[in-house]
Design the sequence.
């Protein structure tokens, strides 16, 4: 930072008109207390002092050169230059010769003047005063000569208070003043030299500690440089643990580090704690007696006396404390403390950089581990996906097992694998598949379930590991494994839906310790395999059940068809003969016989209706019913349907028909639509003893459908029975009159026929208040509709 260099050079206060500036290798001034030197971009490359210091032969080490020359202000100056090889800069300090030696020259000229005056006076008074003044004059002359040679401590001794004595007094005062000025100059030079030494020491420590980022190396180099450059007996480094916040011993110099670090530490020593909390240096004149010192016995044993603890500060954060100790009483000066604070600041930066480097390395290692774990996880996920794709590509159990073992062999580094599945009939683990084993021996009797280690896995429902199956006492036949060259074993249960289906086992030819990560991965493989095996088993069961169900349905259909056809003929005969008797073709009958014949004919017709329903249901279930659409005038269709119910009913019941005569012509299967409505009307009449049955129809253009409703005031249907009334052979127990005929096929046929026409049927009912069946058939299923339907048309 050039600004910092400007500030630093500007802080130099040199007597006798001195100044300091910094020159880069090209000779250009880059920092000076007088900013005009920089702003004017002056170059001093032509000065012998600069050329000598920047010469390649002397630029590799620190070089200190002095010279006298005329500066840019035409002034003669004395200059001292120091070359810094790191940044390759030259630090120059100049002092004006005129100002530096001016006071001396003035005093000398004054002395010479006085001497000349004295000589003139002496010459004038020589004759009268020669005997009295010759001695003092000679002493004054000798004094001037000695002072001229630099012996400023010399004083002239003259007795008497006359003019010669007064001159001697002035001469001595002049000499004393010159001596004081020379002492001040030497002190300034000494301070400058100490500052240069401190700067050099700090730079050497900075270069040493920043040459590595290893914390231990940084601390070691720091201790070495402190030992070389600073006059202290021992040094200690305390660091704050960034995770725990506790203060820990880090390093020491000129002490037994093992002893120091091995001593029990009860809390943070108070001297160290005060430096950390106060963020300022802490001094103790004698740590052997100071109660703040903590382990005073350690200090007595090592004969340590004076103490200075300086906090290691970086941007206000305390990293620890750097402690300096001496074996003799020592009073640390302000200059020392300030220098050691600067040193500690540099050390703190190096330590922080090392700590950050260690953290970065740790984070990098952690990131590498995380990436490695992630790569392994991705590889295993891909492996699981490959296994899943392989074993889910087929539902055949044998193919599933073979593909599973094949993928395991390709993806997992194991020498052999086996699969045993639980047989629910034998209640044993049966061998079903293996890889890289003598399958004949493996399937031998002595290897059947219940005699091997897989049985332990099956019983415990947990993985089992055996380090050596050739020597483990739990193994029933170790000779088999010796022959196969197998050593380590792990068995994993195949669990699907909380049911153990079997066990998959893995073997290695060398002794292998299965890690928790391997166990979890094999568990995932086993779970996938178990699901695939479970699905294969369900598929096999489904196929078997489908075959059995197909056989049962075929038998049922054949039985129902046979019974229906065989029953229709005798029932028709009964109806025919009953009708002949009723028509008196076989003779006269009395009223009682006529009533009986009516009942026979009615019940026979009901039976024929049941037989027809059974045949129709059988045809529906067999898929033999087809939709035969034709153009149907709905108004005429309903008129025909209405005419079939013109006969009086033998109960207090009225039929209300609610439809319009100008219904449109639609394309539908009129036979199935008639069957649907007849079944609903007949059911309504059957289960309504008195009241009414209403048949209505309407066409909706907004919902694109035709809606038929059959509403009765009969006994109704319980709420819990509504979901099942359309099932085949289903009759609602308790909700209907037990004397009512039927086998539970009418509503089933209604639902099936409605679905064939693309519609749906719904029911609303309340026990004791009646039921409403609604059949809705969309226009699309009816084909082209003749006539324009606009709005909602109510049919009467």
Sequence:
């Amino acid at each position: 930072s050039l600004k910092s260099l400007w500030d630093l050079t500007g802080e130099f206060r040199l007597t006798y008109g001195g100044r300091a500036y910094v020159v880069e290798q090209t000779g250009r001034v880059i920092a000076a207390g007088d900013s005009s030197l920089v702003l004017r971009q002056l170059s001093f490359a032509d000065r012998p002092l600069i050329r000598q210091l920047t010469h390649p032969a002397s630029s590799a080490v620190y070089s200190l050169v002095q010279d006298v020359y005329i500066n840019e202000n035409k002034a003669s100056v004395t200059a001292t230059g120091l070359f810094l090889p790191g940044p390759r800069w030259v630090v120059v300090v100049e002092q004006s010769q005129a100002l530096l030696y001016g006071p001396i020259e003035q005093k000398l000229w004054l002395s010479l003047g006085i001497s000349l005056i004295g000589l003139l006076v002496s010459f004038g008074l020589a004759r009268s005063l020669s005997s009295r003044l010759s001695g003092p004059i000679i002493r004054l002359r000798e004094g001037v000569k000695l002072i001229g040679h630099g012996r400023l401590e010399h004083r002239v001794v003259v007795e008497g208070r006359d003019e010669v004595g007064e001159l001697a007094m002035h001469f001595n005062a002049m000499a004393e003043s010159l001596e004081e000025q020379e002492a001040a100059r030497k002190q300034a030079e000494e301070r400058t030299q100490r500052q240069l030494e401190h700067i050099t020491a700090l730079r050497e420590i900075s270069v040493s500690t920043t040459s590595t980022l290893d914390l231990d190396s940084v601390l070691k180099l720091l201790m070495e440089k402190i030992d070389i450059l600073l006059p202290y007996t021992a040094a200690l480094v305390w660091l704050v643990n960034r995770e725990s916040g506790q203060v820990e011993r880090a390093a020491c110099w000129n002490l037994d580090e093992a002893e120091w670090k091995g001593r029990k530490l009860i809390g943070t020593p108070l001297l160290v704690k005060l430096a950390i909390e106060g963020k300022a240096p802490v001094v103790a004149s004698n740590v052997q007696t100071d109660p703040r010192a903590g382990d005073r016995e350690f200090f007595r044993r090592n004969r340590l006396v004076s103490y200075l603890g300086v906090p290691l500060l970086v941007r206000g954060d305390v990293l620890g404390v750097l402690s300096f100790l001496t074996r003799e009483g020592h009073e640390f000066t302000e200059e020392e403390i300030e220098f050691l604070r600067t040193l500690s600041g540099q050390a703190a930066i190096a330590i922080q950089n090392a700590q950050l480097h260690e953290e970065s390395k740790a984070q990098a290692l952690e990131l590498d581990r995380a990436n490695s774990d992630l790569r392994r996880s991705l590889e295993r996920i891909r492996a699981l996906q490959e296994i899943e794709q392989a074993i889910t590509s087929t539902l055949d159990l044998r193919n599933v097992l073979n593909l599973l073992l094949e993928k395991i062999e390709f993806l997992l580094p194991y020498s052999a694998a086996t699969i045993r599945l639980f047989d629910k009939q034998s209640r044993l683990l049966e061998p079903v598949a293996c890889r890289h084993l003598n399958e004949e021996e493996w399937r031998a009797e002595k290897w059947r379930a219940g005699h091997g280690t897989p049985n332990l896995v099956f019983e415990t429902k947990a993985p089992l590991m055996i380090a050596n199956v050739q020597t483990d006492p739990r193994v029933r036949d170790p000779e088999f494994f010796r022959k196969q060259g197998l050593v380590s074993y792990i068995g994993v249960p195949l669990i699907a839906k909380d049911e153990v289906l079997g066990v998959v086992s893995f073997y290695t030819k060398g002794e292998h310790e299965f890690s928790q990560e391997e166990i979890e991965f094999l568990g995932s493989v086993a779970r996938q395999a178990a699901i695939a095996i479970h699905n294969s088993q369900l598929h096999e069961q489904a196929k078997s059940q489908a075959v059995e169900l197909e056989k049962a349905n075929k038998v049922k259909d054949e039985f129902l068809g046979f019974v229906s056809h065989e029953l229709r003929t005798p029932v028709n005969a009964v109806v025919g003969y009953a009708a002949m008797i009723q028509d008196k073709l076989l003779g006269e009958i009395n009223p009682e016989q006529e009533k009986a014949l009516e009942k026979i004919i009615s019940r026979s017709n009901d039976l024929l209706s049941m037989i027809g329903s059974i045949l129709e249901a059988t045809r529906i279930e067999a898929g033999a019913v087809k939709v035969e659409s034709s153009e149907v005038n709905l108004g005429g269709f309903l008129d025909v349907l209405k005419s079939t119910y013109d006969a009086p009913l033998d109960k207090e019941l009225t039929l209300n028909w609610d439809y319009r005569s100008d219904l449109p012509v639609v394309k539908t299967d009129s036979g199935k639509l008639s069957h649907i409505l007849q079944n609903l009307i007949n059911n309504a009449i059957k289960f309504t003893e008195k009241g009414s049955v209403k048949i209505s129809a309407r066409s909706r253009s907004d919902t694109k459908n035709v809606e038929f409703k059959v509403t009765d005031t009969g006994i109704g249907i319980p709420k819990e029975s509504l979901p099942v009334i359309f099932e085949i052979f289903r009759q609602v127990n308790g909700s209907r009159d037990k004397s009512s005929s039927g086998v539970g096929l009418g509503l089933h046929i209604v639902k099936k026929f409605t679905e064939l026409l693309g519609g749906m049927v719904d029911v609303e009912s309340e026990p004791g208040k009646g039921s409403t069946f609604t059949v809705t058939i969309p226009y699309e299923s009816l084909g082209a509709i003749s006539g324009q339907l606009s709005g909602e048309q109510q049919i009467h």
About this structure: Residues 281 and 310 are 4 Å apart (CA to CA). Residues 734-740, 781-796 have pLDDT under 50 and may be disordered. The radius of gyration is 60 Å.
